[in-house]
Design a protein that fits this description.
Residues 9-302 form the Fumarate lyase N-terminal domain. By secondary structure, the protein is mainly α. The protein has three domains: 17-106, Fumarase/aspartase (N-terminal domain) (Fumarase C, Chain B, domain 1); 111-149 and 163-206 and 214-358, Fumarase C, Chain A, domain 2; 364-457, Fumarase/aspartase (C-terminal domain) (Ribonucleotide Reductase Protein R1, domain 1). The protein has helices spanning 16-22, 25-28, 32-48, 54-73, 85-97, 99-103, 110-146, 166-191, 210-217, 226-231, 234-261, 288-312, 325-346, 354-362, 368-377, 382-399, 408-412, 423-426, 428-434, 443-457; strands spanning 151-156, 159-165, 193-194, 221-222, 268-270, 350-352. Strand 1 and strand 2 (159-165) form a beta hairpin. The longest helix is centred in the N-terminal third of the chain and has 37 residues, at 110-146. The radius of gyration is 31 Å and the shape is elongated. Bound molecules: arginine. Arginine binds at residues 24, 28, 84, 110-111, 114, 320, 322-323.
Length: 458
């Protein structure tokens, strides 16, 4: 009948397996610093409203300072018997400062305590991810600027479609990661609301000052319903959802990097430090990092489904189910943080093989649309122009040459509107330069777009 903080009510101890099954200290101890931060704010408020004495508060602060240094030094002893991070710290506090430690939990429950800890932790993680997304976008825009006029084939259906600039291609990802940043910023506004004061579920009979605690902890407001405050984890689900989209974008970029690096394609090379060799095949240099990132997208998607499922069956208010929110949430943040850190470093280390990109764009009739547009500008209806060019492409396929290899006379066979100036639009440079509008692939637009992003990030 000893050990647990709640054990006075019980007539027999739980079995070892149940103890392990219900304990969370192995993973929630990483919330320790936020737990202490929350407790210190709570104690300061309890003193301000005269529920505890200035001496109690001083004792609590002294004890917490000691606990903090024990945790940092790695000498703090975490006990499974004490279930979770909250009870481990509280028990040690009582050991160190006695009755003041026992008064800390006045007007509070682990239910609002843990919800507060998670929000503090998550706010910190979101800020880190926002910074990392910035670094990745800066890297993408920098390489894009460098390659604003490097041409490669753009694909649809994995078939050569039209020439695009490599800078333009990279800036597509800068846009995606820009929206991901917006999502995190938006999510943060709902994370940064204080649950403390909800106590177990109904609030507390003590004259607490919740706005004061919110202010001390840097929250933008307080949860307005105590039942909601302790029970919902929608803010965490939103976060994991935003992370799943980040990983989805990372995964698409990874897939492209893997394809570009295949010797069959040969568009880029990655710095050696992001690749590994094969233990059997000496010639190999494998793009392990992008492949692994593509794979890790699956675990984040899994955490999203797990959290949604965790929530859906819970009646109000707090249920122990919610203890299961942490591992997936922690792993999501860890996975995305590591992935973004590596990608921000990997992108500037991409070696562009411009000759191979160019050669690939010259195959596959990438300028066929340009020829059709050329005819349209000379009065031919687009559908007729489309058909005339399709015939020309077939002819080229038979001959084994590109559209640009046909003479003016040969092209005129497909449509009489073809003039001497036709070859200007059949070149790759002419094709990309012509798409000179906001959002277009022209080098001038790419430079402008990259500069805009770099300026916004500086
Ligand atoms: N370890 C618990 C969690 O993660 C803390 C709250 C437990 N509250 C309770 N009444 N059992 O959610």
């Amino acid at each position: 009948k000893k050990g647990q903080a709640w054990s006075a009510r019980f007539s027999e101890p739980v079995s070892d397996l149940v103890k392990r099954y219900t304990a969370s200290v192995d993973f929630d101890k990483r919330l320790a610093m936020f737990d202490i931060q929350g407790s210190l704010a709570h104690a300061q408020m309890l003193e301000a409203v005269k529920v505890i004495s200035p001496q109690d508060r001083a004792d609590i602060e002294r004890g917490m300072a000691q606990i903090q240094s024990e945790i940092q030094a790695g000498t703090f002893i975490w006990l499974l018997d004490l279930e979770d991070v909250h009870l481990n710290i509280e028990k040690r506090l009582v050991e160190l400062v006695g009755d003041a430690g026992k008064r800390l939990h006045t007007g509070r429950s682990r239910n609002d305590q843990v919800a507060t800890d998670i929000r503090l932790w998550l706010r910190d993680q979101i800020d880190q991810l926002i910074e990392l997304l910035k670094q990745l976008r800066r890297a993408l825009a920098t390489v894009a600027l460098e390659h604003s006029s490097t041409i490669l084939p753009g694909f649809t259906h994995m078939q050569v479609a039209q020439p695009v600039t490599f800078g333009h291609h990279l800036l597509a990802y800068a846009e995606m990661f820009g929206r991901d940043t917006q999502r995190l910023i938006d999510c943060r506004t709902r994370v940064n609301i204080l649950p403390l004061g909800a106590a177990a579920l109904a609030g507390t009979s003590f004259p607490i000052d919740r706005p004061l605690v919110a202010k001390l902890l840097g929250f933008d407001g307080v949860c307005l319903n105590s039942l909601d405050a302790v029970s919902d984890r929608d803010f965490a689900i939103e976060f994991v959802s935003a992370c799943a989209l980040i990983m989805t974008h990372i995964s698409r970029l990874s897939e492209e990097i893997v394809i570009w690096m295949s010797p069959r394609v040969g568009f880029i090379d990655l710095a050696d430090r992001f690749c590994t060799g094969s233990s059997i095949m000496p010639q190999k240099k494998n793009p392990d990092v992008p492949e692994l990132a593509r794979g890790k997208t699956g675990r984040v998607n899994g955490h999203l489904v797990a959290l949604l499922t965790l929530m859906k069956g819970q009646p109000l208010a707090y249920n122990k189910d919610n203890q299961e929110d942490k591992e997936g949430l922690f792993d999501t943040a860890d996975t995305v943080r590591d992935t973004l850190t590596i990608f921000a470093d990997m992108v500037p280390g991409i070696t562009v093989k411009a000759d191979n990109m160019r050669a690939a764009a010259l195959q596959g009739f990438a300028t066929a649309t340009d020829l059709a547009d050329y005819l349209v500008k000379r009065g031919v209806p687009f559908r007729d122009a489309h058909e005339a060019v399709a015939h020309a492409v077939r002819e080229c396929e038979t001959k084994g040459c590109d559209l640009a290899d046909l003479s003016v006379a040969e092209l005129q066979k497909f449509h009489p509107s073809v003039q001497d100036d036709v070859h200007a639009v059949l070149t790759l440079e002419g094709s990309v330069a012509a798409r000179n509008h906001i959002g277009g692939t022209a080098p001038e637009q790419v430079q402008r777009a990259a500069q805009t992003i770099l300026t916004a990030l500086s």
